[in-house]
Amino acid sequence: TPTTCQESLDYQGGKAQPRDSLHTVDTLLTAGPCLLIDADNKSVGWAPDHQAARAAVVGGRATTWAASPRQGVSAIDLDMPEGLAWLVADHLSAWCRARDLWHLVRESGRAGHLHLWALTEQHSDDLDTLADQIRAELHLTSSQLDVRSAGLMRPPSAPHRSGKSALADRLTPEHQADLLTRLKDFQTATKDP
Fold first, then answer.
1. What radius of gyration do the chain's Cα atoms show?
2. pLDDT confidence tier of residue 21, bands split at 50, 70 and 90
């Protein structure tokens, strides 16, 4: 049976199973309600949380879902030619590393389309400024480099509407363990009242 976020974090002394870890990542980075999306990228309704959204995908009611980034989390959608997307993602990753900010880059499901998730906390305005600078320098539109501190984005484990998902194949158990530790610390620091 699916577990809640807290159950995943506490499972077997804090060592969550890989599948539970991915669901925990979704829950810690984003908040419901979740928009259910079909293969044509159209809304097919709402689910109250990630567990219900996953059930809708498994049950065939939707092909994926999107949710809002939590406060202190930035989600960046990079939709541009593949080489340029990775160049921009590398630049944004270096910016995050220089500030010791946890971040994750994943393929979105199509060539040249990436998602970057970052725990930006007090750096979100700086990230917006950096994105503006990159857009101006590379002549990108806001839809090609879209920073979402609000709005909706597919959580890291949600498949692309085509059904493709690269995260589970690329997130090693060691990376998952580090991620869960940092996300648990982040969750504790930003606990909703």
1. 16
2. low
